Amino acid sequence: MKVGRDRRDSRWDAHREQRRVQLVAAAIGAIRHQGAGLGMDEIAAAAGTSKTVIYRHFGDRSGLYAAICESVADVLLTEVRRATADALADPAGGPRAAVGAGIDAYLRLIEIDPELYRFVVHRPLLSQGPAAGRRAPRDDGSTDPVNDLVTVIGDEIATVIGAHVTGDDGPSAARIWGHAIVGLVRGAADDWLARPDGTTRDRLTAHLTDLAWSGLSGLAPHVQEVQK
Q1: Whether CATH 1.10.357.10 fits 65-131+142-216
Q2: Which residue of 52, 73, 206, 227 is 20 to 30 Å from 186, comparing CA positions?
Q3: Where do the structural domains in the chain lie, given as residue ranges?
Q4: What is the pTM of this model?
C-alpha cells in the first residue's frame, strides 16, 4: 500500500529538517571562523560529516548556499521589522526615524558578521567548482536568494514610507523610493566593508538617513513627517 510507505517516509521529515538546520548552522559557524572564501571541504569538516551527506540534504553547493541565505534573511528581516516598528511606536519617532532604524539594522549585520555578509552577497561558494553559475530553484519559483532578500527589505521600507505618503500615486511612489533606498544602502555598505576608513556604523547610518530622507522630503513634500 502506498499510504503505508508514505507514512513511514513522513516520519523522517522532522529529522531531515532538523539535520538541515544543523548543517546550515555548522556552515555559518565555519564562515564566521574561516572567512567567506571557504569551500565545501571546510564546511563538511566543520559539520563533522562529508560533502556527500551535505549534497544529500541540499542537492549541491548552490542548494546549501540558498539555505544559508534564507537563514540570514530570516534574521535580518526580523531585525529590520523590529527596528522600524520600535521607531514608529516611539512618540518621538516617525517615518524618518523608522527609515534610519531600518538602515542601521542592515548595517549592524555587516558590522557583527562581515564574513557572513560577504558570503551571502558576493557568492564565493558558487564561484568554486562545477556548480558555478547555477542557482538552486526555490519553492516559490525564484532563483536568487540575494535578490529575493533585497526585494523583501525594499518592500518593508516602502511600507514604512507608504504609511505616511498622501496622493493617488503614493503606493507606487513609496515602492520606488523604498527599493531605491535599499540600493543606496547596499552600495554604501559594500564600500564601507571593502574600504574601511574609520567611519563608524552610527555615522554611516546618519549619513545615509540624511541623504535618503532629504531626497524623500524634496521629492515628496506631501510626506507627513512627524519628527523634525
Answers
A1: yes
A2: 227
A3: 65-131+142-216
A4: 0.78
